[in-house]
Amino acid sequence: DTGVSQDPRHKITKRGQNVTFRCDPISEHNRLYWYRQTLGQGPEFLTYFQNEAQLEKSRLLSDRFSAERPKGSFSTLEIQRTEQGDSAMYLCASSLFTGGNSPLHFGNGTRLTVT
Amino acid sequence: AQSVSQHNHHVILSEAASLELGCNYSYGGTVNLFWYVQYPGQHLQLLLKYFSGDPLVKGIKGFEAEFIKSKFSFNLRKPSVQWSDTAEYFCAVNEGGTGNQFYFGTGTSLTVIP
Known about the structure:
The complex is a heterodimer.
Chain A: E1 5-7, E2 10-13, E3 19-24, E4 31-37, E5 44-50, E6 53-57, E7 65-68, E8 75-79, E9 88-95, E10 105-106, E11 110-114
Parallel strand pairs in A: 2-11
Antiparallel strand pairs in A: 1-3, 3-8, 4-5, 4-9, 5-6, 7-8, 9-10, 9-11
Chain B: E1 4-5, E2 10-14, E3 19-21, E4 24-25, E5 31-38, E6 45-50, E7 56-58, E8 64-68, E9 73-78, E10 87-95, E11 103-104, E12 108-113
Parallel strand pairs in B: 2-12
Antiparallel strand pairs in B: 1-4, 3-9, 5-6, 5-10, 7-8, 8-9, 10-11, 10-12
């Protein structure tokens, strides 16, 4: 178990720029989740995949956010035309779903700062 | 959608004191329940989980939690805290069976004074 890996650890960008984050889940895990966390809050669900299929996306998620998991392994989260309100920690987690009771394994996150 | 409430936002205890952190959720059906911990500078780690069976579950580092279905609660306990327990604690819930979204509480920051 090499753990969930996220890249980069930190990203500073100017408002209006596009950013992309990558997540490599634990290799045998079929589910991959993206969460966002701001100071003083718990992780907020963004979207999740089972293998390469995106099964659910938060209704609160702006159209500027898109995620992919093209081969059912790593995933990318892209934010277009970033805004200052996008500044947050973006967390990736994975699980081996076999029927509903599998815990999430988290990565260290990507901290995004939009200036 | 589920909601998860953690009533204690910040708790300060002396070493050896007992700990209880509250967690309540809103979903009335079958649930899976989790407590995660985030030590300073580290990623979220699973402390313990409840799926079914004995409502008193034991986790790592001496933590335990009790599922009380009638109260929609899953409180975390530890009889005697240590300085190394200083961390952020998050309760999480997902719907049993589908296990899709995980809903998290806002977290409780625990500071243990030596």
